[in-house]
Structure formats: C-alpha cells, structure tokens
Amino acid sequence: MEHENRTSDDGKAALLSQRAAVVFLLAALVGIGAAVLAALAGQVWPLAVSVGSGAGAMAVVFFNQIID
User: Fold this and answer.
1) Torsion angle, alpha carbons of 12, 61, 41, 35, to 10
2) Which carries the bigger pLDDT value, residue 2 or residue 43?
3) Cα distance between the two ends of the chain
4) Which residue from 1, 27, 65, 67 has the least number of CB within 10 angstroms?
5) CA of 24: how far to CAs of 2, 30, 55, 60, in Å?
C-alpha cells in the first residue's frame, strides 16, 4: 500500500490520515469507557485509569486490523 503526501486546502501536509484519526478516536472512546466502568465498579481512580489505558492500547491494535 503506497502512502500519498496528503495536503489540506491551504497546502500544508496533514498531521494524520483519516484512517489513523478514526482508529485513535475509537481507541480513546474505548479507553474512556473502560475507565469509567471500572471506576463505577468501585475501583480506585489510578487502577481505573490503568484499565482504561490497557483497553485503549488493545483497541488501537484491534481497530487498526479491522479498518481498511
């Protein structure tokens, strides 16, 4: 798969591709959701953030594989 040099309307290079932005957005939503659910289940906030971080990292791998 070849990568194009994507530019915006003003001629500047894009920071992320649309695919990468969608993957990171979905991973962030999964991580936040997992952290909130862990906190609501009675875990302390540092542990809930750790759970959310782990879920977000796995979500990046998952969504990177399934989104073409």
Assistant:
1) -20
2) 43
3) 11
4) 1
5) 21, 10, 12, 7
Query: Would you state the structure tokens that stand for residue 25, as one six-digit string?
Result: 């957005």
Better-scored residue on pLDDT, 47 or 14:
47
| Mean pLDDT (the chain, rounded) | 91
Q: Which residues contact 34 (CB under 8 A, 6 or more apart)?
A: 51, 52, 54, 55, 56
Q: Do residues 23 and 64 touch, judged by C-beta distance below 8 A?
A: yes
Among residues 63, 67, 66, the alpha carbon closest in space to that of 26 is found at 63
- DSSP helix/strand/coil, 59: helix
pLDDT in tens, 4-27: 566 666 778 889 999 999 999 999
Would you mind telling me the total number of residues written for the chain in this entry? 68
CA dist., res. 62 & res. 23, Å (int) = 9
